Amino acid sequence: MNRGKLAVVAMIGLAIVLAAFALWWNITSGRRTLEFWGKDAAARIIDDSARVELLWLEMAAGDGDEKHLKLGLRTYAVTAEADVTSARGLIHARHALVEDASFDWVADSTKGGADYTLLVRFRDQAGATTVAFDFERGIIAHVEGGRRQKAAAKIMEGWQEFASRHRPASRIESPPGR
Length: 178
Description:
By secondary structure, the chain is of the alpha+beta class. The protein has one domain (30-166). It has 5 helices and 7 strands. It has helices at 3-28, 31-37, 39-46, 90-97, 153-166; strands at 51-59, 67-71, 74-83, 118-124, 127-134, 139-142, 147-150. Strands 2-3-1-4-5-6-7 form a 7-stranded antiparallel sheet, covered by helices on one side.
């Protein structure tokens, strides 16, 4: 066998090894987040055809005119909403939610309460996946799944910055008749 053929065989062999490594890396880098979100919710998070809404929250003071949501034992008022389906940077923010490196899998996030200030709702024809953020404690919750997990500081900072860029200036308008 001459050197040229040997070089081609070596390159093909190296390409196969690198492709196998890439496949292994992609499968293992999201294994724990897939367990956390569940198959359907994770698929909805990364599906670029899903509608994505940001909802800013405050603890509900009473029966005001705001839209109310109950998360766990707490009631929140929705103070602002934005559709960010085609927002710049959303693809990276979505990807961060399904990477194992975005979460601290050792920390116990089940102790204590959470004060959520942002919800991200991913909707498609099959349903919705809602992600709640407690930026103060660094917790991300899967609302429908009833699970929460401590997140890496980098993902929390990224989502907080992304949300602040898209927050509308005014508060939610009350529907007529309320």
